[in-house]
Write a structure and sequence with these properties.
Elements (H helix, E strand, L loop, with lengths): L9 H6 L32 H13 L15 E6 L5 E6 L2 H13 L1 H9 L14 H12 L4 E6 L3 H4 L4 H7 L1 H6 L7 H11 L13 H16 L7 E3 L2 E6 L2 H16 L11 E4 L10 H4 L10 H20 L5 H14 L10 H13 L4 H9 L7 H10 L1 H14 L2 H13 L8 H8 L4 H14 L4 H12 L10 H13 L1 H14 L7 H4 L2 H4 L17 H13 L6
Antiparallel strand pairs: 1-2, 3-5, 3-6, 4-5
Helix pairs in contact: 3-9, 4-10, 7-9, 13-14, 15-17, 18-19, 19-21, 20-21, 21-23, 23-24
Length: about 575
């Protein structure tokens, strides 16, 4: 299990794990259709600065280690696309709570690695160490000699895990209840830390980070140990049992339901499937990586581009038929073909660019793949051409931004804003719309809207500060909501001299009720009396001095989460 240890280090959990970004250092086949970028664009938000300085910060803030002491914080909740009928909620923990959880995982890694190692059923325990193809081969090997396979999964898996059931599954319900007040026990600490990530909530574990994924995998590997007599394979909460006798399937199903019931989990019965040999095989993803392999090198650019158009159109048909990953695979397949010199570097012209951009407009979560695609040095197109194409479709993009804002579709909204921010678009969204987005609960969209406003509407800067002041009045400690937006606002004051000047001018002009001279007004003693939540000193220490100290250290070190 040596290769898994990196997933249990604090640096990895922060740098790659908070936004669930796949490390490029992993030795994986880059054509793996199931390798994923983060929901949050890594070219817009990232945790590298924090990861690099995490050990120094912990030394300066040693109370972050405090055993089982509760310190609940409000997560950033994001509405994420699941399918056309359903949304799922991501909970991005306050980074203070996340680092505490990461430290716990690192400090107890030997216990947790042993649990994971002992599961012979899990395919998901490999995290990013095995490719989709490798897992597929292992699953097919497990099916050999069997006429039937039974598939099932757990209903609302992450939101249904009761945090108190973590100690139950780790050491047994009897022992867990006997020692439930012992905050020195690692399993009770885990229970508390998960609760802290979601403001004391005991139902569910926060979806969206690598730490949560590790906790969920540990949980399920312990479930595997209670089902060791059955020859199934599992990926997260999806089970597949090969069998020949229906009695085997019934016995497994009844046992699975009984064990899950002990932890307040239930099977999603409408997803139960029985397949008969020869089993259905979905090879549609292979289409994206072999489509251009038969092209002849002497074909004209016109014919190659015609084939690219057909490739994109067929991909969208796959999406309509249920292959949810088809839009992102369009970009990965094209990048693969260009890197393998199956198609020329100048194949992407403006009509194809428009077609690719339309995929992003209709499925904004693919924006990260578009950014990665056009960063490829082998692709003969520059950012000016992309910016011009975005401008060409400005009316449609603005319409969708307004729609996503009204529907509270967070993922779609911050994805489009991320593209506009990354490509440095000018005067794309009206100032009033950006101010409306800043008022939202979604910190990621609010941060990007603040940046876009500042970059495009300096002459309306007063409106920006008024809006932010009103928003921050609702959050007076670092445990509370808007922690990410609040932090990025304060760090911008610390690191952007021009922004700091605008901020000081605003305070002096609009908050100087005693009509003091500038030097007198900005005297530290006077600033403590100024009625504005744009001032960092308005953040109260609250019940937990460690979290206050933690964020003060981050601000003093100039650490930002925005590229």
């Amino acid at each position: 299990m040596a290769q898994y240890r990196k997933y249990f280090t604090l640096e990895n959990l922060v740098k790659y794990g908070y936004f669930e970004i796949k490390s490029k250092s992993n030795n994986l086949n880059q054509d793996d259709p199931y390798s994923q970028s983060s929901v949050i664009f890594q070219e817009v938000f990232d945790m590298e600065m924090l990861s690099q300085q995490s050990r120094d910060i912990i030394k300066l803030c040693p109370s972050i280690h405090t055993g089982g002491k509760a310190s609940p914080t409000v997560p950033v909740e994001l509405s994420i696309y699941k399918n056309d009928e359903e949304r799922r909620m991501y909970k991005m923990p306050n980074i203070y709570s996340y680092i505490r959880l990461g430290l716990h995982i690192e400090e107890n890694k030997e216990i947790y690695l042993e649990i994971i190692k002992n599961s012979s059923h899990s395919l998901s325990k490999y995290f990013y160490e095995k490719t989709f193809v490798s897992n597929k081969i292992e699953k097919e090997t497990n099916r050999m000699g069997y006429r039937y396979i039974f598939k099932t999964d757990i209903q609302h898996f992450y939101p249904s895990i009761y945090t108190h059931s973590l100690p139950w599954v780790l050491v047994g319900k009897t022992e867990a209840k006997r020692t439930r007040t012992d905050k020195g026990k690692y399993y009770n600490q885990l229970d508390t830390l998960i609760q802290d990530c979601q403001y004391g909530e005991t139902h569910g574990i926060p979806t969206g980070t690598m730490a949560s994924r590790i906790v969920a995998e540990i949980f399920m590997c312990k479930i595997d140990s209670e089902l060791s007599q059955y020859g199934y394979k599992r990926y997260v909460d999806d089970f597949e049992l090969p069998y020949n006798d229906s009695k085997e399937q019934v016995e497994f199903y009844n046992c699975l339901q009984k064990i899950l019931g002990q932890y307040n989990l239930v099977i999603k019965k409408e997803k139960n499937i029985i397949d008969t040999y020869p089993f259905e095989v979905d090879n549609s993803s292979e289409y994206f990586f072999s489509y251009f392999s038969n092209l002849k090198g002497d074909e004209s650019s016109r014919l190659v581009r015609a084939k690219v158009h057909r490739y994109i159109e067929q991909a969208l048909i796959f999406q309509k038929k249920g292959l949810k990953g088809a839009p992102k695979l369009v970009f990965k397949g094209l990048a693969s073909a260009i890197n393998k010199e199956e198609i020329p570097v100048n194949v992407i012209n403006q009509p194809i660019l428009s077609k690719l951009l339309n995929i992003v407009i209709m499925t904004p979560s693919t924006g990260a793949y578009m950014i990665d695609f056009f960063k490829n040095k082998n692709i003969d197109i520059n950012e000016t051409e992309i910016n011009n194409n975005l401008t060409k479709h400005k009316k449609l993009i603005v319409k969708n931004v307004k729609r996503f804002t009204n529907l509270n579709y967070n993922q779609e909204l911050f994805s489009l804003l991320g593209i506009l921010y990354y490509y440095k678009t000018e005067n794309f969204l009206e100032s009033d719309l950006l101010l409306e987005i800043i008022k939202l609960e979604d910190d990621f969209s609010a941060v990007l809207a603040m940046e876009l406003f500042y970059n495009n509407y300096r002459d309306e800067i007063t409106s920006l500060f008024v809006c932010i002041d009103e928003k921050l009045e609702r959050t007076k400690t670092w445990n509370e909501e808007y922690w990410l937006f609040k932090y990025q606002f304060f760090i911008k004051i610390e690191t952007d001299n021009e922004f700091r000047k605008y901020w000081k001018d605003y305070l002096f002009t609009h908050k100087n009720e005693e009509d003091l001279e500038r030097a007198q007004f900005f005297n530290k003693k006077n600033l403590n009396k100024v009625d504005s939540y744009l001032l960092r000193n308005k953040q109260q220490q609250g019940k937990d001095s460690a979290i206050f100290q933690f964020f003060e250290i981050l601000l003093d070190k100039g650490i930002t989460f925005l590229k």
